[in-house]
What we know:
- The protein is mainly α.
- The chain has a domain at 20-74: BFD-like [2Fe-2S]-binding domain (Arc Repressor Mutant, subunit A, Orthogonal Bundle).
- It contains 3 helices and 2 strands.
- It has helices at residues 29-37, 43-50, 60-78; strands at residues 20-22, 27-28.
- It has a two-stranded antiparallel ribbon with strand order 1-2.
- A hairpin with a 4-residue loop joins β1 (20-22) and β2.
- α1 packs across α3.
- 19% of the residues are buried.
Amino acid sequence: MMTVSVLTIIRIRVHNNNMIVCVCKAVSDRHIRSAVKAGACSLRDITRELGVGTCCGKCLPEAKAALSASLEACESRTGLFTPSTEFAV
């Protein structure tokens, strides 16, 4: 009698939405979004805070794109609740 073993492959899907922007300094787009939330508003700011573009510089185009997207996202959210909004109590 012959025994057959079955190999089951289980796939685990990991939802990792972080993209590495700067390999040299291990900076992801999540780091850039955090820096923007903390007040960074220019490429110079994220270069100072995160070191993006200080080694080989190949990350600068993608860093600019991530910075731009983060700034746009922050601007679209600020219109929801502004400090000047008054609430009735």
